[in-house]
Structures are given as C-alpha cells and as structure tokens.
Automatic annotation (TrEMBL):
Name used for this protein in its record: TetR/AcrR family transcriptional regulator
Source domain of life: Bacteria
Swiss-Prot/TrEMBL keywords: DNA-binding, Transcription, Transcription regulation
Species of the source: Nonomuraea guangzhouensis
DNA-binding region: 29-48
Length: 193
C-alpha cells in the first residue's frame, strides 16, 4: 500500500483560493500555487494538465460547495420563505468561506473559462442550468411566472446578497453580523411587492 499523496487536490486548490482572495485570479499560476502550497510544480501538473484545468477545477469546486446549500434553501417550505432563505445562505456561506466567496465574486471568464477542457465547460453549463431551473421552479411555486417576477426573484436571491458581500469584501472588511438579517428582510420585502 502506497503512502497518501502529500499534496492532494484540495490542498492545492485551497492555496489557489487564498491567492485569488489576496490578489485575484490572474495571480493563480502553477508556480504561484506551488510556492503557496510548498509543493513541487510537478505535483500540480500531475493533478492538473494546465493552468486552465486548475482554474476550472477551482471554480467548479467552489460553485458545487456553494450550490449545495443554495439549492436546498430554494426548496424551503413554505415557498414564501425560500427566497429569504436563499439570500441568507449567500451571506452566511460567504462569511464562513471568505476565500471561496472571493472566487464567486468573479466570473468564469476571469478563470480562463474559454480555455477550459470541454468536460469542465459542460459541467459549468449544467451547474448554471441547475440554478436557473431552481429559481424558475420557485417562481412557479410562488405563482410568479411573468419575466419581471422571475427577474425580481433573481434579484432577491442572487444579486442583492452578492452585492452586500461584494461591498464588504472589496473594502477588506468582514461581513457584519447583521448582514444575513438585512438581506433576508430585503428579499422578503421584494417578494411581497
């Protein structure tokens, strides 16, 4: 039985996430991750055939981790509580995972998405489709089928909470303790209008 790898994928991606949080995705290179993780470059190339592959894996891992709770919140019963629960999740998850929250404040293009392997781009599309479908399913449950109403739901569950997270992170400040209550209240108000 061989010994476990000293530089596993998660440890390397955690180092990459720290680089993104400190200086943005353009600083995530194989050499920079190797230095941050104290790993030889060969360990990184052994796990990721290219920088684009590493960036794709970082983005998709982060999205998957975030979406687990977000999609669950969108299925909250009764349906009227789902949008506020989803908004709360965005802020709570971002506070609990500050490095990964920085990643999600960018977009896939900032992580070299045009050069990702096709399998990663397909996975990204499935992931995006899951969120769109979940928000639309919530709109159906709420009997809000008009395009304006669906857009309002995206505003309440995605745009507003991310704007709150972005403002504090861009200033280098921690997200205040009241932020979850604030976005929850705003989402509930939007859903009543």
């Amino acid at each position: 039985m061989g010994r476990p790898p000293r530089h596993d994928v998660d440890r390397l991606l955690d180092a990459a996430a720290e680089l993104v949080a400190a200086s943005g995705p353009s600083t995530v290179t194989v050499a920079a991750v190797a230095r941050a993780a104290r790993a030889p470059s060969g360990s990184i190339y052994h796990r990721f055939p290219s920088r684009s592959s590493m960036l794709a894996t970082l983005w998709l891992r982060t999205v998957d981790r975030f979406q687990d709770g977000f999609l669950s919140a969108l299925n909250t019963e009764p349906a009227a509580r789902a949008a506020p629960a989803a908004a709360r999740h965005v802020v709570a998850w971002s506070r609990a995972h500050p490095h990964e929250a920085h990643i999600l404040l960018y977009g896939p293009a900032d992580f070299d998405e045009p050069n990702w392997p096709q399998e990663a781009r397909d996975r990204l599309e499935r992931s995006d489709r899951r969120v769109r479908n979940a928000v639309r399913a919530l709109a159906e449950r709420l009997d809000r089928r008009e395009p304006r109403e669906v857009e309002q739901l995206f505003l309440a569950t995605v745009d507003l909470p991310y704007a709150t997270v972005r403002r504090h992170q861009s200033l280098g400040r921690p997200i205040p303790a009241y932020a979850e209550d604030l976005v929850t209240s705003c989402a509930a108000t939007l859903m009543r209008s």
